[in-house]
Amino acid sequence: MTKNWEHMNDQPAIWTRSKREVEDSEYKAFYKALSKDQNDPANWIHFRAEGEIEFKSILYIPKECPHDYYDTYYKKSTSLRLYVRKVLISDEFDDFLPKVSPCEPDRRVNPR
């Protein structure tokens, strides 16, 4: 019995590509797919860091706070995801980043 495999996705991950190669429409579509937000992001930054470790990243800033932001503030994760070689490793970074309200950008909130 022989199986023929069909390659379904031949596009490289958006964060692995150079920011010069990625169009704004691709960033917006990726944000909407990732966040399940219907609105475009307010802004984003696509960067590469090199040093002892090397990584590529895209950080999105939403236009508005989610409707349940304050109801789930202490329960909600940071919404960051770590991928290594395109495989999701972790999405739990609550101890890594301080909780900051995007609705009040200069006001830091101490966790309970």
Overall mean pLDDT score? 77
| Shape descriptor | globular
Which class do the helix and strand fractions yield?
alpha+beta
- Determine the N-to-C terminus distance: 60 Å
CATH architecture of the largest domain: 2-Layer Sandwich
Can you tell me the CATH topology of the largest domain?
Answer: Ribosomal Protein S5, domain 2
Structure annotation, total helices: 1
The percentage helix is 10-25%
Uncertain stretches: 106-112
CATH class of the largest domain: Alpha Beta
Largest sheet: 2 strands, antiparallel
**Physical arrangement of strands within the biggest beta sheet:** 1-2
In total, how many beta strands? 4
Cα-based radius of gyration, to the nearest Å: 17 Å
Summed up, the domain count is 2
Q: What share of residues are in beta strands? A: 15-25%
Quick summary:
With 112 residues, this protein is an alpha+beta fold. Helices cover 11% and strands 19% of the residues.
Provide structural commentary.
The chain has one helix at residues 24-35; strands at residues 43-49, 55-61, 82-84, 87-90. It has 112 residues and is of the alpha+beta class. The strands form two sheets. A two-stranded antiparallel sheet has the order 1-2. Strands 3-4 form a two-stranded antiparallel sheet. It is globular and about 55 Å long.
